[in-house]
Amino acid sequence: MGWFSAMFRKKGTTPEIDRMLEADMPQAFPGGAEQIEHETAVLQPLVQGRLSLEETRGLLVHCKVLGIIAQDPSELRMAGSIRARTRGKFDQATALAVCRHLAAATEKPNGSGDGSRVEETVVIHATRSGGGVRSEYRWLEPHFGQRDEDWELISQALMS
Predict the structure, then answer these.
(1) What's the predicted TM-score (pTM) here?
(2) Cα–Cα distance between 1 and 26 in angstroms, integer?
(3) Contacts of 110 (CB under 8 A, 6+ apart)
(4) Tens digits of residue pLDDT in 79-130
(5) Residues 14, 22, 87: CA angle, nearest 5 degrees
(6) Cα–Cα distance for residue pair 103/88, rounded to 1 Å
(7) Exposed, middle or buried, 129 (CB in 10 Å: 0-12/13-18/19+)?
(8) Closest by alpha carbon to 43, among 75, 90, 4?
(9) In this structure, how many other beta carbons lie within 10 angstroms of the beta carbon of residue 43?
(10) What is the full DSSP assignment across 89-133?
């Protein structure tokens, strides 16, 4: 059992879900428990006292890992998940604000660049290719808008 499982095991989760969470925690929080605590403290003012510190931490972990493993990590899907997770404590506008905050917080992971040129490459840390691709599109959306509405993919390649 890793540091995530020991800190955040939720009642009623299955071993399969626990394995998925454990596998994706390094991608969601490469800085470990310190990063979780820091990001929780940054998120806390945005929830405007509607959640306890523990609930805010749980929401942060839930959203960041869900963003990695979800088949549909769109803003509306994530906002719906946030509203469900907070059991109606957030209206749609607050849920969208939290969603956008979390997307912006992950836009420049580990000192990576702004994506404007090769020297400013945005580094995506992923343990699986599917999670990496979803992370790429999550980064693109707040910067360039919706795919196929605001921009069109011409080509995509892996650079290593």
Answers:
(1) 0.56
(2) 14
(3) 30, 123, 125
(4) 888 898 888 899 998 888 888 877 765 544 444 677 777 777 777 766 556 6
(5) 60
(6) 21
(7) exposed
(8) 90
(9) 20
(10) SS-HHHHHHHHHHHHHHTSSGGG---SSSGGGPPP---SSHHHHH
Q: What angle do CA 26, 28, 34 make, to 5 degrees?
A: 75
Distance CA 83, CA 100 (A): 14
Tokens of 67: 């963003």
Locate 30 and state its tokens: 């490469």
Contacts of 13 (CB under 8 A, 6+ apart): 21
Is residue 17's pLDDT more than 70?
Answer: no
Tokens of 117: 């040129």
Q: Give yes or no for a contact between 50 and 89, defined as CB atoms under 8 angstroms apart.
A: yes
Distance CA 87, CA 68 (A): 22
Half-sphere exposure of 126 (CA within 13 A, CB side): 16
CA distance 68 to 153: 21
